[in-house]
Amino acid sequence: MLPIDPHADRARRAWLPCPHCRDQDGCEACTAGRTCHVHWRYLLSSKGHVVHLQCPNCAHVWDQDTSR
Ligand SMILES: [Zn+2]
Ligand SMILES: [Zn+2]
Hints:
The protein has one domain (13-65). The termini are far apart. The protein has a four-stranded antiparallel sheet with strand order 1-2-3-4, with no helix packed on it. It has 68 residues and is mainly beta. The chain has one helix and four strands, in the order E-H-E-E-E. The longest helix is centred in the middle third of the chain and has 4 residues, at 28-31. The model has no long low-confidence stretch (mean pLDDT 94). One zinc ion (ZN) binds next to helix 1.
């Protein structure tokens, strides 16, 4: 498992589903599109529509185009 990125900041969060562990599946708050206190991701950086995220649950790092 990867360590949490040193640039990860709890104050910078994004609510997007993790493609690796999918821990948000079945969560009532996430399904409803509400701000979930459990299933959020570190927002490491963003460039235009592309955000660089890390999941605090499984430490998976990925890029996601939010314009789609
Ligand atoms: Zn994950
Ligand atoms: Zn949730």
